[in-house]
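Lecture notes, unit on protein representations.

Consider one protein chain, 300 amino acids long.
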Amino acid sequence: MSRKIEFPDPDDLIRRYISGESINKLAREQGVSQGAIARFMRRAGVFQDRSVNRLPLDTETIVSRYLSGESEKAIADSLGVTRPPIRRRLLAAGIQPRGRSEAELLKWSQMSPMDRTLQVAAAHEATRGRTLSHDEKLRQAKGKERTQAHAVVAEFHLISLLAERGISATCQRAIGIYNIDVTIDHPPIAVEIFGGHWHAAGDHKRRFFKRTEQLLNSGWSVVIIWVDGRRYPVSAGCANYIVALAQELGRNIPTWSQYRVILGDGQDAPTSDSYFNSRAIVERFRGGRQPAGDHHLVSG
């Protein structure tokens, strides 16, 4: 037998329920289950059957709001109802509710860069100074791919340019413990977009060598794109270069694991250590691979 719960202000609770507030909302505020509120309202003689067929909800509006990015919960709360009638209407309209990962990705895609930074700041603070295990790094990379938290405008722009040319690409793809800015699966091409020469110094430089060597040894071809917002931003020429490379590799699988360095306009990058394009760096990445010529390793 259910224990009878005494509420501090039952008259106010009844008034709010009759005026349209949801059982879910009242239950959360009172710290009890929805069933407890429903039983109380039945004993008070005011319980209403708020089933999907009796609620005066506009299905077309609900569908429109959901497709524009609002969550079921946000819609339900704004209408003073619980989530089930919202979901039933979506299903009846042929709308497949978003899964958790899809909902999270949509949320991140609608955030500004500042909002994304604030969202992950707490997580960064929690791990500061602590060495992550390999499994934690793998999960972290997958999370970054799912949320797109570290993606920048240049990456999305390049993916759009590639799509216009019939090439499907992925943003922030997790490969092992690393996240690659843009990837093409067939043939496997990993594209990194660098926007400042701090990439060529300190910890960033060390991570670059380790990541690039792992990618090349795993059969990926690597394209480094140096961009400058005024002189050579990511452009159609850059996308054309990658498409041509993909076509070349697609015709000749043994030439995979190439290393190329270009500018955002698709032209060869200057040969220098600061562009990761010097002879010494090329030889370091050559390893045991035997390409048909130096142009299979580096542009310029």
